[in-house]
Amino acid sequence: MPRALLVGLALAGAGAVPLVANNYVLSVLISLAMFTGLAYAWNIISGYTGYLSFGQVTFFGVGAYTAAVLIIKLHVAWPLAALAGGLLAALLSLPLGWIMLRLRGPYFAIGMLGLSRIAERIAFAWEPVTDGGRGLYLPPVLDLRAVYWAVVLVAAALVGITSLLDNSRFGLRLLAIREDEGGADNLGINTTLAKLQAFVLSAFFPGVLGGIYAWHVSYVDPVTAFATQIDLTAIVAVLLGGAGTVWGPLIGGVTLSVLAEVLWARFPFIHTALFGALVIVTVLFLPKGLADAFRQRGWLAPGRAFLRRLAARPAPLEAAPE
Amino acid sequence: MLWEPVLWGQLLIHGVMLAGLYGLLALGLNLVFGVMRVINFAHGELVMLGAFLTFWGYTALGLHPLVALPFSAAVLFGVGWALQRLLMERVLGGQPMAALLVTFGLSLIIINVGLLVFGADIRSIPVVSGSLRVAGFVVPKARGLAFLTAVALTVATVAFLRWTAFGRAIRATAQHPEVAITCGVDVRRTRLVTFGLGAALGAAAGSLIMLILPMDPQSGSLLILKAFAVIIVGGLGSVAGSLLGALVLGIAEVFGSFFIATVFGEVMAYVLLLLVLLVRPAGLLGIAER
Amino acid sequence: MLHVEGLEKRFGGLRAVDGATFRLQPGVITALIGPNGSGKTTTFDLITGNVRPNAGVVRFEGRDITGLSPWQVARLGLGRTFQLPRLFGEMTVLENMTAAVREGTLREVVHRALKLLDFVGLTAHADAPASSLSYGQRKLTELARVLMLRPRLVLLDEPFAGVNPTLARAIADRLLALQRQGTTFLVIDHDMPLVMGLAETVLVMDMGSVIAAGAPKDVRDDPRVREAYFGTARP
């Protein structure tokens, strides 16, 4: 199948980059893959399910601290530590999601922001584990290639998972919740459960990425691990690319990286304002993101093809019930 | 915990004084929500902007903060009006998330402008010092002044909403925009005034908060979280609920800081918020859907 | 089939539903009529779990479903539609049909959805976003969507309101066809001739309780009904 071939080629190409690239290029690509991955994770709860979160960085920070502590105190290998960071983030997201997902719309968004601020405060205060504001120092990373492969693997996994989600009944349930939660409830969709499942997915991957991040920069402190800027970048990437789509986060992530290199490096003092302006301009003039614009020009196939494909090729009549 | 009447009374007084400020802080946010059904995510930044204008009036022009406050509020009224006119009108009535995201983008721009204009330093207005002794309790003059002004402004706003024609127009628009239109209310103008008023109330709250707590251009995000907690704890769309929420939050913060840890005081708003959500999702007095 | 007893809901001082009691027979189309504000939609909300009653019991096929969540009620085979159709606007009609279905392979589900879309005459719109449909098409899609759950009882809230007479007749015919296959319906509507022709049994609500029940013509001649219905605001 050409599709499988394409995916294989893309993965092989991405995997081969460290063989030719220098450390600077690798750093740029690590950061690109990291933010694209975070954008994909955010896209599940906020893009598909419609629960706009301003605080998924909570789970990034939890992952970063978990991995750092495991590496420093228990000498766990860093990939395992990062995985443990993801698992703890997912575990934590169960009770938190159960409570927070009772809030809807803007209340959920701001409630999550508050949660991330609490998490930061706790990291400051819990000195025996986090060493407070001084932060935790990890052994320096000399070889960036492994970090690169790990981040790209997570990002690629998220693209794959999103593609599966986009073509699954679970994905349709999430979209139904986004469109009309009450209506979905009345059709027999256990919305509480579906939302929680999406929330856990959107917490696990930032946790893993946080763990990899801690290893990558060899340092974790409350301000950087729970930085609002991290959420912001993921949110802007998804909005720009197209929320609730398979390719939106990637398109947005890449566009944002290019913008950052070309534009923002020159105007560091108005960096935040440019982000804000980008959010407003996107919402006003490109509410469905670049992915939709690309689709209208025929550069990108429409998403959620699975039902259409089945409808075009219906089951043999005798197999059908009724 | 030891039962010491004087200490507890002292803490209670501090909590209530803080609550007066939180009530005013949440009032503007609640008002805009009531009329527009939009959570103005930039409310904290408008508060910060108002506070820094007052600070500027104090340092550059030598104005007493209470003299500078009306000017700062007037400027912010204009800013709020302009934002509604130029931005919010384009997204109201559309996707609810669009309005939230626009105010979110706006908050980032205002923070950045604040950093460029005012610098990143933490500022305060230490104009009033000293304390009074009232019935054996210590009341710092700055806190007392901020509290009394905040209460006066809150009472004035509630009275304005209740007893003036324009206030009734605002409340009518909040309850039934369609009915308000048929009754001859100029809904568009009402919304413009409401957003302006929300920003002006925020500016007043910010100016008063700066009398007792230092601020920097990034403090807005912390303030909106407190305002938000007040509204959720009290119950959405209920003025009485907001006042109760402010009281609960102010007192809880003071006691939490004193008896547990300063950090706990800071996160108290959210601990409360989570508890309320867990036990009584509609808020202590709220009935509104969310 | 459905057994409602002493159902009560207060909103503040207002008794929206005040001791409503009735039974539905299986395989029958029952009409629920009554003046505006008599508590019909709230009764639906109480049955499907959208609103919790202050008192009373709802039994569905012998099982107490009072206080269950809407999704639990729906999974037991009790579906509903709304006065204003609640479709998932950004999703296609076909996606609307399949989103909530759990049983069967995807192939079977899609096939069934296409058959039902054919049944309501919307096959051509299967891939159109629900938000692009006309009002009448939305009503039909919502009806087809609830049928995807193979409900044994469906509550329809004003299926004919705002629909042109031809389409209303078409919807009524579909309901009769489904009834012949064994589905039970409870229908709220104000289109008296249509409802009286469709329903075998009529329930009349006034001031939150059921004041009369019976065959259409008996109910029409009931003096209490005349007073509640025609004696007040209506001519």
Brief write-up:
With 322 residues, chain A is mostly helical. Chain A has a domain at 21-226.
Features:
heterotrimer; A: 322 residues; mainly alpha; two-stranded antiparallel ribbon; C: 235 residues; alpha/beta; four-stranded antiparallel β-sheet; 9 helices; 10 strands
Give the helices and strands, then pairings.
The complex is a heterotrimer of chains A (322), B (290) and C (235).
Chain A (H helix, E strand, L loop, with lengths): L1 H19 L2 H26 L8 H18 L3 H23 L4 H21 L1 H4 L5 E2 L6 H23 L2 H11 L1 H6 L4 H27 L1 E2 L1 H4 L2 H14 L6 H17 L6 H15 L3 H8 L9 H7 L10
Antiparallel strand pairs in A: 1-2
Chain B lengths: L4 H32 L6 H18 L4 H27 L4 H23 L12 E4 L2 E4 H23 L1 H11 L1 H6 L4 H26 L7 H15 L4 H21 L2 H18 L11
Antiparallel strand pairs in B: 1-2
Helix pairs in contact in B: 1-5, 1-8, 1-9, 1-10, 2-3, 2-4, 2-8, 2-9, 3-8, 5-6, 5-8, 6-8, 9-10, 9-11, 10-11
Chain C lengths: L1 E10 L2 E11 L4 E5 L6 H9 L6 E6 L2 E2 L5 H6 L2 E3 L12 H6 L7 H14 L15 H13 L5 E5 L7 H16 L3 E5 L3 H7 L2 E6 L2 E6 L1 H6 L1 H8 L5
Parallel strand pairs in C: 3-8, 3-9, 6-7, 7-8
Antiparallel strand pairs in C: 1-2, 1-4, 4-5, 9-10
Helix pairs in contact in C: 4-5
Largest protein interface, residues of each chain: A-B, 40 and 44 residues
Spatial shape of chain A: globular
Please state the oligomeric state of the protein chains shown. Answer: heterotrimer
Question: Using DSSP, what is the number of strands of chain B?
Answer: 2
- Give the H and E element order of chain B: HHHHEEHHHHHHH
Report the order of strands and helices of chain A.
HHHHHHEHHHHEHHHHHH
The Cα radius of gyration of chain B reads: 19 Å
Q: Helical amount among residues of chain A, as a percent range?
A: over 70%
Number of helices of chain B: 11
Helix fraction of chain B by DSSP (H/I, runs of at least 4): over 70%
Distance between the termini of chain B: 38 Å
pLDDT < 50 runs, ≥5 residues of chain A? 317-322
Main pleated sheet of chain B: 2 strands, antiparallel
Shape of chain B: globular
Mean pLDDT of chain A: 90
Summing up helix and strand content along with how strands pair, one would put the structural category of chain A as: mainly alpha
